[in-house]
């Protein structure tokens, strides 16, 4: 800023133009002190040269090479107070230029890109205040007689300008100050440079205070608010410059580079701030080839951020879904035919819909389903498991169990492994589990004695098959009424294999999750955690007594004490009133010999000492009448110990814990039971 006088090159074409074209008389009086253009559509501007108002609503000062464009508000503004409005010191105020403020939104777009910084788009845009819209009167030498005040957005190197991207204040061609284009951040006062020819929409504020004679010029990108600190500030009394009503407008020119100069909105106020421009309502610039790469520069980071967020969400979802992803490992290949795809099971059970729920047991939930391809009705048991330890052995056992074939055994069709869940697929038993008949749930009819005795024989036969007839000894571990299922012929079948094994596998006794059900669990199991065929016999004994009497093996007494069914039957045996204990729902219609046999055999199987229990082979023989039951004497020493021994068999903690779980399935009996 050397204050040297110079003649802006755009003066010449301006004058040339004006001398060639008659400018309509700058008709009209300054009738108002403010105006606002939110876009220029349908607006009357006094235009010269290439200046056009486009249908989109923006003012286009130039659009190509070697062009000039000028546009003025059609009415002159009363920059000087008339004596009539002067109040305090009329003579002085009449001379003073009133405070004024103007703001405009613009964009400068170079349509050709070049690395030659010396040849940027043109002269830029100049906001001018001149006495006449007829510019032919201007003195080309830039003398004081021009009476021109201007704020330039210069994109070209002129004499006296330090660079080609600056903002300057000029009086009659003399620079009052100039600054590299940019703005000061409100937060930290840091300077942020802007490129005028970037094609970005920017905004300029020009403020003059008539009292202090200070001129401020502020620049900011749209839609940023006006920064508090002006880019440029100068002190100059405009009273000598603006001598009367004057016109305000824009001037622009290009030379070697094809440049488009746009003004999108403009407002002005005298003795008041320029009316606020609603940036959102301004016309939109047409998309340009140059702007597309610009758009990409802005859009690309946004798009990539959105993409990254999307991917992160996907990963989270997939990881969540991973829990439902089927697990398959190499060792499972040999079990291939028994592995049922999760997809099929989902389809079969309608995504484990509640309406397909058959029941909830100790280890999981059971759903009814129809396999998609074979249309076989199945029961799918969903078991949650935490550790994969022993899983291989367990699956091997499941698969070997799948090879069991017996008319009193629920066929295990296959399995499916998820991360935290194991799905076991069994044949569907249309008549449900026996417990529902015994206790009259689901409006099931009371089973006749003949049916009950058949069920007893069937289960005995199934257990005998498991223990002795098959190629290896299979211990069921969880014989009880709810695991006895009835097929469509009311034929009893043993269900739920192997799970007890899964839960007992390889754990220390102290923390063992003892699978089984209170009253069905042989006392030695709670002590040692070891199951054997004879523990199944114990459970079978409890089952026998339950089916015959219609009472649960352990019932909670009125004072929270435990009534062992064995004790009750034992008392009746001592009083020779055994038939009184037979299920009252049979209304006396039963075969007394068979009932007598069932009760005594039940007691025999419930012997606290495993070695004194019969084997399943013997049980079969007793039931078939092939051999007669040994006499059970009420005074028999080992039986007199029965109830105490059995009570002692459970540790008190286990019993209280289990009974609070409603006398049902024990499932997990653990000092550290984690609940289920
Ligand atoms: N194969 C099947 N066909 C038809 N219904 C079944 C089948 N398996 C189980 N159910 C039903 O689902 C219910 C829940 O079975 P689940 O085995 O989970 O519990 P539970 O037998 O009561 O206890 P536990 O977990 O100790 O075996 C059963 O009571 C039975 O009514
Ligand atoms: C513009 O100014 C020139 C010279 O000052 C004058 O000859 C011309 O008539 C003016 N035009 C109008 C429209 O006032
Ligand atoms: C403009 O002002 C002049 C005198 O100052 C007056 O003669 C003329 O009628 C006014 N025109 C309008 C449009 O107000
Ligand atoms: C106006 O102000 C000037 C100086 O401030 C003073 O000399 C002059 O007398 C004042 N005029 C009136 C009319 O108050
Ligand atoms: C233009 O300015 C020059 C000097 O700067 C002066 O000699 C000349 O008279 C002026 N012309 C007009 C028309 O004001
Ligand atoms: C110019 O900017 C300065 C500093 O922010 C401020 O104090 C002053 O009031 C401004 N003047 C005008 C006319 O806006
Ligand atoms: C200028 O001074 C007058 C009188 O003191 C005051 O009313 C007015 O608001 C001031 N204008 C500005 C822009 O500060
Ligand atoms: Mg079960």
UniProtKB/TrEMBL annotation:
Pfam families: Lectin_legB, Pkinase. It is a single-pass type I membrane protein. The chain crosses the membrane at residues 296-318. The lineage of its organism: Eukaryota, Viridiplantae, Streptophyta, Embryophyta, Tracheophyta. It is an enzyme of class 2 (transferase). In the N-terminal section; belongs to the leguminous lectin family. GO terms for biological process: negative regulation of response to salt stress. ATP binds at residue 382. The keyword Transmembrane helix applies. The keyword Transferase applies. Residues 1-28 form the signal peptide. It is found in: Cell membrane. Its main location: membrane. One of its GO terms (molecular function) is carbohydrate binding. One of its GO terms (cellular component) is plasma membrane. Its EC number is 2.7.11.1. It catalyses: L-seryl-[protein] + ATP = O-phospho-L-seryl-[protein] + ADP + H(+); L-threonyl-[protein] + ATP = O-phospho-L-threonyl-[protein] + ADP + H(+). This is non-specific serine/threonine protein kinase. Keywords: ATP-binding, Cell membrane, Glycoprotein, Kinase, Lectin, Membrane, Nucleotide-binding, Receptor, Serine/threonine-protein kinase, Signal, Transferase, Transmembrane, Transmembrane helix. Residues 352-639 form the Protein kinase domain.
């Amino acid at each position: 800023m050397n204050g040297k006088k110079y003649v802006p090159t755009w003066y010449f074409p301006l004058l040339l133009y004006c001398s060639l074209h008659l400018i309509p008389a700058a008709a009209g009086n300054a009738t108002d002190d403010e105006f606002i253009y939110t876009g220029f559509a349908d607006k009357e501007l006094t235009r010269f040269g290439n200046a056009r108002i486009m249908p989109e609503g923006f003012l286009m000062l130039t659009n190509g090479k070697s062009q000039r464009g000028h546009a003025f508000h059609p009415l002159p503004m009363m920059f000087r107070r008339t004596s009539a409005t002067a109040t305090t010191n009329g003579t002085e105020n009449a001379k003073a230029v009133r405070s004024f403020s103007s703001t405009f939104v613009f964009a400068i777009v170079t349509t050709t890109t070049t690395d030659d910084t010396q040849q940027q788009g043109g002269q830029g845009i100049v906001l001018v205040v001149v006495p006449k819209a007829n510019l032919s009167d201007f003195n080309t030498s830039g003398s004081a007689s021009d009476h021109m005040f201007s704020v330039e957005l210069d994109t070209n190197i002129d004499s006296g300008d330090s660079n080609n991207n600056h903002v300057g204040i000029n009086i009659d061609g003399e620079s009052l100050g100039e600054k590299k284009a940019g703005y000061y951040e409100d937060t930290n006062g840091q300077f942020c440079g802007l490129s005028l020819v970037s094609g970005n929409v920017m905004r300029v504020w020009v403020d003059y205070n008539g009292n202090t004679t200070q001129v401020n010029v502020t620049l900011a990108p749209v839609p940023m608010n006006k920064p508090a600190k002006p880019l440029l500030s100068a002190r100059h009394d405009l009273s000598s410059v603006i001598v009367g009503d004057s016109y305000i407008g824009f001037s622009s020119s290009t030379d070697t580079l094809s440049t488009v100069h746009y003004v999108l909105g403009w407002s002005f106020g005298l003795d008041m701030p320029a009316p606020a421009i609603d940036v959102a309502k301004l016309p939109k610039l047409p998309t340009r080839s140059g702007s597309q790469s610009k758009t990409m520069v802005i859009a690309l980071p946004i798009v990539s951020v959105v993409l990254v967020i999307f991917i992160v969400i996907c990963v989270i979802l997939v990881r969540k879904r991973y829990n439902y992803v089927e697990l398959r490992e190499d060792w499972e290949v040999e079990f291939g035919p028994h592995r049922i795809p999760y997809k099929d099971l989902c389809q079969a059970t309608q995504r484990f819909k509640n309406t397909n729920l058959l029941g909830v047991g100790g280890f999981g939930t059971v759903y009814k389903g129809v396999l998609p391809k074979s249309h076989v009705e199945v029961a799918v048991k969903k078991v949650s498991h935490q550790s994969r330890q022993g899983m291989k052995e367990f699956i091997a056992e499941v698969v070997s169990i799948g090879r069991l074939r017996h008319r009193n055994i629920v066929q295990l069709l296959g399995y499916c492994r998820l991360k935290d869940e194991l799905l076991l697929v069994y044949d569907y038993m249309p008549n449900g589990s026996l417990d529902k008949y015994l206790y009259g749930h689901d409006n099931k009819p009371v089973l006749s004695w003949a049916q009950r005795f058949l069920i007893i024989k069937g289960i005995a036969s199934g257990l005998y098959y498991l223990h002795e007839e098959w190629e290896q000894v299979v211990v069921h571990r969880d014989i009880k009424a709810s695991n006895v299922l009835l097929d469509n012929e009311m034929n009893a079948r043993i269900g739920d294999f192997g799970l007890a094994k899964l839960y007992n596998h390889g754990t220390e006794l102290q923390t063992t999750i003892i699978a089984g059900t209170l009253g069905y669990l042989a006392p030695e199991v709670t002590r040692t955690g070891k199951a054997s065929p004879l523990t199944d016999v114990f459970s079978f004994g409890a089952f026998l007594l339950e089916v015959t009497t219609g009472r649960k093996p352990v019932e909670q007494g009125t004072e929270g004490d435990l009534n062992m069914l064995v004790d009750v039957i034992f008392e009746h045996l001592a009083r020779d009133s055994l038939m009184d204990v037979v299920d009252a729902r049979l209304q006396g219609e039963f075969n007394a010999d068979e009932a007598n046999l069932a009760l005594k055999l039940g007691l025999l199987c419930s012997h606290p000492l495993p070695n004194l229990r019969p084997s399943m082979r013997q049980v079969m023989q007793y039931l078939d009448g092939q051999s007669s039951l040994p006499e059970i004497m009420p005074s028999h020493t080992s039986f007199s110990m029965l109830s105490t021994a059995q009570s002692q068999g459970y540790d008190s903690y286990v019993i209280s814990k289990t009974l609070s779980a409603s006398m049902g399935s024990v499932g997990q009996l653990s000092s550290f039971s984690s609940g289920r």
